[in-house]
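Design job #97: recover the sequence.
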């Protein structure tokens, strides 16, 4: 049963400016330790990750805040390249799709409660 849908979009330039201003403090707030270790993070990749985590939080109905943080949502990729998310403390199946084009990252998340 579909329980929630979330969508988010963010300008890559906005993420680049935030990263330039706050540096490592920004990336360590957004990314889990596992995500940080995966690769070098450029602005488009950070924007995709931001959009994905925001969409997931919206699908779960909490948003990012007291009930759910960026650290509670971890994004990885299947061997075929499809994004996957795990969310600490939330059961169910989560499906996400992420893209960026023309300087904007967009993500949609569908949460099915089992």
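Job complete. Output follows.
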């Amino acid at each position: 049963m579909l329980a929630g849908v979330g969508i988010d979009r963010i300008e890559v330039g906005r993420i680049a400016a935030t990263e330039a201003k706050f540096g490592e403090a920004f990336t360590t707030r957004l990314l889990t330790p596992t995500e940080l270790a995966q690769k070098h993070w450029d602005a488009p990749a950070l924007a995709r990750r931001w959009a994905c985590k925001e969409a997931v939080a919206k699908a779960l109905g909490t948003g990012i805040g007291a009930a759910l943080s960026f650290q509670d949502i971890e994004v990885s990729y299947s061997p075929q390249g499809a994004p996957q998310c795990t969310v600490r403390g939330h059961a169910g199946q989560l499906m996400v799709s992420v893209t960026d084009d023309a300087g904007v990252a967009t993500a949609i998340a569908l949460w099915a409660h089992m």
